Automatic annotation (TrEMBL):
GO biological process: potassium ion transport
Protein name (Swiss-Prot/TrEMBL): Tlr1378 protein
Topological relation to the membrane, as annotated: Multi-pass membrane protein
PANTHER family named among the record's database cross-references: POTASSIUM CHANNEL PROTEIN 2-RELATED-RELATED, POTASSIUM CHANNEL PROTEIN YUGO-RELATED
Domain RCK N-terminal, first and last residues per copy: 113-229
Cellular component aspect of the GO annotation: plasma membrane
Matching InterPro entries: K_chnl_dom, NAD(P)-bd_dom_sf, RCK_C, RCK_C_sf, RCK_N, Trk_Ktr_HKT_K-transport
Compartments in which it is found: Cell membrane
Signal sequence interval, chain numbering: none
C-alpha cells in the first residue's frame, strides 16, 4: 500500500465538498431565521443550488430574504461546479483507481501476521525482498521515496509510503504482529533511530540492521538490534577468499572484475584500486595501520606487489612504491576515497 499523497485534484475535491457543506449550513441557518423549519430550509437549499426549478418552499417577502437567497444560489452553484470539476479531474488522472487500490492494499496489510517489515527499498532492500519472496515469507516494504514505493508496487510487493521513524507508520504496517524488521537504509543514523523506535514498540521483534561504518555497529547494538550487517565487510571476506584461491586471479581479469562489481552493486559496494606512488604519504605503513587511517570509509582487501604477487589483508604486508592497494568501499564513497588519498599523495601536509 502507498499512503495517498495530497495531489491538486484531491485537494480540490476536499475543498469543494467543504465549501458545499459550509454553504449548506449557512443556508439552513438563514432560512430557519425566516421562521422555516429545518427540513423546509434544507429542501430549499437543494432545489435552489441544483436549479431544479421548483417554486420557493415559502414566499420570500422582504428584499433581505431575496438578497440572501441570491447569494446562496451564486455561492452554492459555484461550490457545486468546483466539486464536480475536481471529481472529473480525479477520474481523469486515475486517482480514484489509486484510492481504491490503496484501500485494497490496506486490507492486505491488515491481514499480515508474523511478517517482515523491510525499511528501505534501495539496492539491498530489493535483494531482501527477492529473497523473502523466494522463501514465501510475507513482508511489507516501507520507504519515504514515492518512486521506490511505485517500483515495489509494480513488482507486486506490498508497500507503504511513510517514515519508519514514526510510530504511527510502524503501527500501520503491523509492527505489533511482525516477527522481524530489517532496516537497510544507506543512512546509519536513520537505521539507529528506526531500531530504537521498533524495539520500544515490539520488544520481542527480531531486528536486523545495516551499518555502513564499523563505528555504527555498537550504536545499533545499544539501540536494540539483534544482528548487524556490514555489507562492505561481507564483500571483503568473500573477495579475500577469492584472492586465496591459487588458480583464479580474478583481479587480473577485466571481465571478472566487472562481473564482481555487478554483484557487489547489490550491496552498494564497489572494488577500487589505488596505486602507490613515490609521493604517497603512507609508504612503509602496514595495511592495518592504513585501514585505521581510513576511519571505516573502506576495507582493504589485499595488496598487489609490483612483481604481481598478491597478499590478503590478513598478511599485513608493508606498503611500498609500485604496489597497488585493493579497496572495498561503499559504491558512492569508494571513488571519493581514491580521490582523497590521491590528493594527499600529491599534496602532503
Amino acid at each position: 500500500m502507498r499512503r495517498f499523497p495530497a495531489t491538486p485534484a484531491l485537494n480540490r475535491f476536499i475543498i469543494g465538498i467543504t465549501l458545499f457543506v459550509l454553504i449548506m449550513l449557512v443556508a439552513v441557518v438563514g432560512y430557519t431565521s425566516f421562521g422555516w423549519n429545518w427540513l423546509d430550509a434544507l429542501y430549499m437549499y437543494v432545489i435552489t443550488v441544483f436549479g431544479i426549478g421548483y417554486s420557493e418552499v415559502r414566499p420570500l417577502m422582504t428584499p433581505a430574504q431575496r438578497f440572501f437567497n441570491m447569494m446562496i444560489i451564486v455561492a452554492g452553484s459555484a461550490a457545486t461546479v468546483y466539486t464536480i470539476g475536481a471529481v472529473v479531474q480525479l477520474f481523469t488522472e486515475g486517482e480514484i483507481k489509486q484510492l481504491l487500490e490503496m484501500q485494497r492494499a490496506s486490507r492486505d496489510i491488515n491481514k499480515l501476521n508474523r511478517h517482515v517489515i523491510v525499511c528501505g527499498f534501495g539496492r539491498i532492500g530489493q535483494v531482501v525482498a527477492q529473497e523473502l519472496t523466494a522463501s514465501k515469507t510475507p513482508f511489507v516494504i516501507l520507504d519515504v521515496n514515492e518512486q521506490r514505493i511505485d517500483l515495489a508496487l509494480q513488482l507486486g510487493y506490498l508497500a507503504y509510503l511513510g517514515s519508519a521513524v514514526e510510530q504511527e507508520t510502524l503501527q500501520v504496517v503491523g509492527i505489533d504482529r511482525a516477527i522481524a524488521l530489517a532496516t537497510v537504509l544507506p543512512n546509519d543514523t536513520m537505521n539507529v533511530f528506526i531500531t530504537l523506535t521498533a524495539r520500544s514498540m515490539n520488544p520481542s521483534l527480531l531486528i536486523v540492521a545495516r551499518a555502513n561504518l564499523a563505528t555504527t555497529e555498537s550504536k545499533l547494538r545499544m539501540a536494540g538490534a539483534d544482528h548487524i550487517v556490514l555489507p562492505t565487510k561481507i564483500g571483503a571476506s568473500q573477495m579475500t577468499n577469492l584472492i586465496r584461491r591459487p588458480r583464479i586471479d580474478f583481479l587480473e581479469q577485466t571481465g571478472d572484475r566487472e562481473t564482481l562489481n555487478d554483484l557487489l552493486s547489490h550491496i552498494d559496494a564497489r572494488l577500487e584500486e589505488l596505486e602507490i606512488t613515490p609521493d604517497y604519504p603512507y609508504v612503509g605503513t602496514r595495511l592495518t595501520g592504513l585501514e585505521v587511517r581510513g576511519e571505516g570509509a573502506f576495507i582493504i582487501v589485499g595488496l598487489r606487489k609490483s612483481d604481481g604477487q598478491l597478499f590478503p589483508a590478513r598478511a599485513n604486508p608493508l606498503v611500498e612504491v609500485g604496489d597497488t592497494l585493493i579497496l572495498l568501499g561503499h559504491a558512492q564513497d569508494a571513488p571519493k576515497v581514491i580521490r582523497k588519498y590521491t590528493y594527499r599523495a600529491r599534496h602532503p601536509q
